[in-house]
Amino acid sequence: MKSTIVKRLIQIIPMLLFVSIICFGMIKLAPGDPVLSFVTPNMHPEDIERMRQSLGLDKPAYIQYLLWIKEALSGNLGYSLINHQPVLQQMLDRLPATAGLMGISILISVVLAIPIGLLAAANRNRWIDKCINLLCYIGISIPVFWLAILLIYLFAIKLHWLPSVGMRTIGVDSFWDMVKHGILPCAVLSFGFLAVYVRYIRSSTLSQLKEDYVQIQLAYGSSPKLVLFRHVLKHVLLPIITLLGMSLADLVAGAIVTETIFSWPGIGSLGMTAVKGMDYPMIMGITLFSSLMLILGNLIADILYRFADPRIKSTR
Amino acid sequence: MVKQKSWFQWIGVFTLALLMVVVTACSSGSSTATNTTAPASTDATASTDSGQPKDGGSLIIAVAADPQVLNPNYAGDRVSLTIDQALYAPLFQVNKGKKTFYLADSLDLSKDNLTYTLTLKKGLTWHDGEKLTADDVVFTINKILDESQHSFLRSSFVIGGKPVQVTKINDTTIQFKLAQVSPAFEAALVQVSPIPKHIFENETDIEKSTKNNNPIGSGPFKFKEYKTGEYITLERFDNYFGGKPHLDSVTYRIAKDTNAANLALQNGEINVKYLDPQDVSTIQATGNFDIQAYSEGRLAYLMFNENSDTGVLNKKEVRQAISYALSRDEIIQVAYTSTDYAEPARSPFTPDALYFDNDVTTYDNNIEKAKQLLQQAGVSNLKLRFIVSSGNKSQEAQSLYIQQKLKEIGIDVELQNMDSSAWSNKFVDPNAKDYELAISGYIMGYDPDAYRILYTSNESSNYTHYNNKKVDQLFVEGSAEADTTKRAAIYKELQEIIAADAPIYPMAYTKTIVAIDKKYGGLDKAILKPVVIFEDLSKIYLKQ
């Protein structure tokens, strides 16, 4: 196991290098010039050129990349072209907000998906199953931004129960205030994943219920509830570990939209600003961070899977 | 099979019920939103101050992004400029031709029009208690002029190819010596808000200095707290030279999504916010906001690229024909909903500019005349390429309108949608030859010399590639003419020549719309101002 983990960790280095080359290449190929964001009509061409030089944008692309990678290897991801602050520092400042939002959203999705999925499977083709299915279709197809606006309208404007923007009330630093601010973004981010997980658990439970071991347990007179929770559930939950690892990419994408709408000060909204301003050191930093997170997420999922089901070791 | 349990059912019922409540609330909201069509106040000085002033309280202003840098020598974006306006006091301001002195007490010009003498008010202090003197002003100007410091303002202080010479006479007096007469110098000085010498004198790169993260200014509010991505809070500066501000604090709340920010405005989480014309009726329906539309001195125009590879827009008759095919009133309706938010434009100058004259040659909608001009130019089956910035709703709507109208005179317009960065790149590229039409806008400030870079041949921002020797000569004369009567005549003639040549089709002088919670007063003294919303935030108060 240890050697596998070490091998997988070593593989991360060329993967990140590959991602950085692709990302840098795409930024360079994309139309647009970061200097244009700073140009005012009364700036002279020589001032614009001076600015280009000071940002290092006058050098050939491959030199820019080599300089970037050299700095990145020493832990310096460069400076934002927009506000000249260190990229790494800004990402670290924003990381807790994103980690909190994503972690809680995943937790909510999984905790709610298990009972709802089991409920749907246990009531297959009855009205309650149909209702859950309908909600799942809505959850999968509803655009994140639309759901966000809808919830803000209902819970902030109409009912005045919850705040609609930011992570805290201005000047207030209490835990409960942050909880109140987090409810709507977490609800929005969780909703889509909840729908996906519920459908997965439902179909997985239904296929398990057809297995011989379930039929035998029922034939021996075990209660259906006991069979469901003691025997079926563990078979259903195991693949969710893998599903969670795979969901990370969608979660990052969802967080960008959710953070922008709710003015949540996380890495997602930072990324959105960077893309709009062609702030390529920041785009590179965030892309690398997201890639690293995905790779590590999948690695952790694999490791957990092996711990949870030792048979995997021999079959892979 | 597993038996159904009632508490499980209730989860499903509850979820379904919740969704129905959400959908119902949404549909009732949309009907409210369309309930009113009353126009917003269109006069920036309209008084809304019925309540008595009271000291204390806070104001929350929505901004669309984090500031780029809290230092007025480098602020080029709207958010940084807006926050800097509260943090750093300017020397003086000019609004509708009227000069208001802030840090400065007077500005005098020598008889030969080459030396400006600026006198500061006495007893000025920075937020940290240090004295603000002529040394700070001299330091600021010298840092602006220092090429290695990359200030946006540098080019404004290089006159006739030579940098302005700035000298301290005494603690409150500064002298500026110009290489040649330049009435536009005042407009350059308007942009300056001094930065403290005692803070920055040892910094090699002020733009990247960490001291910008804890700014020390001289404005009505001082820096208190910045939560990146969330908000920036400023607190009252009791020693503000203009008198103690009424409010305890001002916060700039970062709200990137316009729709969500509008909802936060309605929810009371934001007190001041820019509005799109399309959102005015929804916000007005709440009855809680003063909605003010004011001019930013911006011209929205259709640009004719005379440099395109077809060369077709080189012919004045073709440009005039296109202009005759369009109607400003219809464009305003399409893009800005009504004339409350945009006024028909004829001059290339904006109404806030000195010597502005909108009574120039115009091309009011006349299809027959347009067809006649095309015939006169010997042009038929014309095809034009129109670059459009995707996602810019106003631009997309106007381009579709223009495409439709030009069809009526036999011109086929091909719309080329591209993302905003690509569009900007193409628009400012002097060698771009693969398009003929584009929509853009400019804010050039009050001195007409600023327009030189747009309409003088071979200038950096002459995007249309307009070329008229007489215009070039008049701009040179205007920039060095100290006599206001003669200067006025020069710029009036300039406006007429440019309007007649039609290098652009001026569409509208657009207005900025701001919603301000009705519980605040003092707006008339705070003065609504282009780009930064309020000129002097110290005057705003909570009504009793």
TrEMBL record, chain A:
GO terms for cellular component: plasma membrane. Keywords: Cell membrane, Membrane, Transmembrane, Transmembrane helix, Transport. It comes from the Bacteria. The chain crosses the membrane at residues 12-30, 101-122, 134-162, 182-200, 236-262, 282-305. Residues 95-305 form the ABC transmembrane type-1 domain. The keyword Acetylation does not apply. It is a multi-pass membrane protein. Belongs to the binding-protein-dependent transport system permease family. CDD domains: TM_PBP2 (cd06261). This is ABC transporter permease. GO terms for biological process: transmembrane transport. Gene3D superfamilies: MetI-like (1.10.3720.10). It is found in: Cell membrane. Coiled coil: none annotated.
From TrEMBL, chain B:
SUPFAM superfamilies: Periplasmic binding protein-like II (SSF53850). Keywords: Signal. It comes from the Bacteria. PROSITE patterns: PROKAR_LIPOPROTEIN. Residues 103-461 form the Solute-binding protein family domain. Residues 1-33 form the signal peptide. GO terms for biological process: peptide transport. Residues 30-48 have a biased composition (Low complexity). GO terms for molecular function: peptide transmembrane transporter activity. GO terms for cellular component: ATP-binding cassette (ABC) transporter complex; periplasmic space. Coiled coil: none annotated. Residues 30-53 are annotated as: Disordered. The keyword Cell cycle does not apply. This is ABC transporter substrate-binding protein. It comes from Paenibacillus kyungheensis. The lineage of its organism: Bacteria, Bacillati, Bacillota, Bacilli, Bacillales.
